[in-house]
Amino acid sequence: MLGWGWMAAPGPCTVSAALQEHLRHLTLQDFPCGLGSWVGSRGAQPWMWIGAYRAVTEEDVPLGEESPEALIELLKDQHSPWALPPGCSPQDQLLREVAVLEPELVHGSNVFQVLRSLRIVDKGVSAVDAGLLQLQQLEELILSANHISRVTSANLPRTLKVLELCCNAVADLQDLCAQPPPELQHLGLGYNRLCGPLQDKCLTAAFWPNLVSLDLSFNNLTDLLGLVSQLSSLEKLRILVLKGNPLALIPTYRGFLVDSLPKLSILDDIHVGLDERHQFLGLASEPGQSLTRSEARVVVSVGDMKGVPDPSTLQQLADDSDFPVITYSYCVTYEFVEGEDHVLGGPSVLRKENSLRGFLCPCTAKVFVTPGKPWEDIIHYSYRKEHIVKDLMGLKSYLAAGTIVSVVEEKVLSWPVEADPEENIDRNKKGPACKDKQKKKKKSCELRSEPPIRKTLGTRKVTLEALLATEDLVTALCDFGTLMTEEPPLSVEEKVRSKKSKDKSKAPKAESKSQAKEKASTSAKGDRDWGWLGSGW
């Protein structure tokens, strides 16, 4: 371990501790870096900077020592045992070369006067401590993918120009805005926990007079009007990233920002052109109801479906009986977050509220069903529904989790009104004479339908996360695999053979009771599988 005097007993999760560990892995004091027998008497003589050492020839190097060129080559060769460890930056390579050419510059605490860029990524850091103030030349600080929840601006070097805190747990900006670095040009706060309206004036020119780039992507910001009122004071702001926030789901979001921030060059990683500015001219003065109400609109469309097995082929294999009359229909179900709904192009039936996979999405969803269609080679749905959602946080969670799409078969058995299904079964067994009478009465017979029998033929998850970024449309082709609607009925020979085998088998009563329990258990499981769709169809 290197003993840096300025870091007195640093905590295990501070930036100082992570920096100390990182420098230890760079081995700046060990061969081929630093001072040692391999540099001999020239160790105290600086070799200027990189490139100057090439004037030194092998004849000038005493026996038992190494030339700077040979030492640098050991650092650069990827197959060398002294090559950089994985995950190091170009700044680390430069630091090691300085440790070869001018080892005194990086000896002990002198190394902190050389560092201009510090990159500590995914090291479990949870606190930005005062030890950073010793890095008096630091201009770039990257602390992505750590566990930082608060940043005390008093612990940041005043020379800082880039501060990247992406993928942390920052939920409050008050401490960061107390004494921010005055020369800061980029502030990265993407993928943090900022939510709701930000504190008053936290992102104004009073704190960030030189800010050029601001990344607030994938937080939980909802107040677009309040945020723009703060950002409009940042006269040097040219790059802004807000995608992934609930406020970015508002239909007029981009146009409102483009018109409100006329100096903006890049919004959500997309260049802002003159045509776009002309298109949205005047929108800032008339934001519209969707913006003032903070509501989003999502349209769900279902096109065609093919590949469903023809149920009539199974009916033809069954006994030639007139009743029951069996009809089949097919529909598509999908889950959507709760909200006000408007139908475009056809009715939609709301089925049942349910929790949208609570472990994925902490919001309540409903199951929507397309109108049932009879079987065809290609079933045309032409379904289109517009959902208006005011809960932007819930919509963001829903899009991040994705939706579940299912194909459902509905089977309906119909019997004559004057008789119940059991009587019809008895009549079908009386013989051909009875069947002839039934055929004569068939035309005038009024049918009574049983409750529909529903079966899920296939289920797939559709990913919608692209809608949180810059995409306006997600198109998915769902492959449900091989669909089996029902098992084909047994032929007459198979029925006779099955009946004989049952007569021959003489199972104990206890065993038959056990089998009955197993069948009942299987039936109950089938009911639970379908229970999430409810019985109100």
From TrEMBL:
<dbReference type="InterPro" id="IPR001611">
    <property type="entry name" value="Leu-rich_rpt"/>
</dbReference>
<keyword id="KW-0433">Leucine-rich repeat</keyword>
<feature type="region of interest" description="Disordered">
    <location>
        <begin position="422"/>
        <end position="448"/>
    </location>
</feature>
<feature type="region of interest" description="Disordered">
    <location>
        <begin position="489"/>
        <end position="537"/>
    </location>
</feature>
<dbReference type="GO" id="GO:0005737">
    <property type="term" value="C:cytoplasm"/>
</dbReference>
<keyword id="KW-0677">Repeat</keyword>
<feature type="compositionally biased region" description="Basic and acidic residues">
    <location>
        <begin position="424"/>
        <end position="436"/>
    </location>
</feature>
<protein>
    <submittedName>
        <fullName>Uncharacterized protein</fullName>
    </submittedName>
</protein>
<feature type="compositionally biased region" description="Basic and acidic residues">
    <location>
        <begin position="504"/>
        <end position="530"/>
    </location>
</feature>
<dbReference type="InterPro" id="IPR032675">
    <property type="entry name" value="LRR_dom_sf"/>
</dbReference>
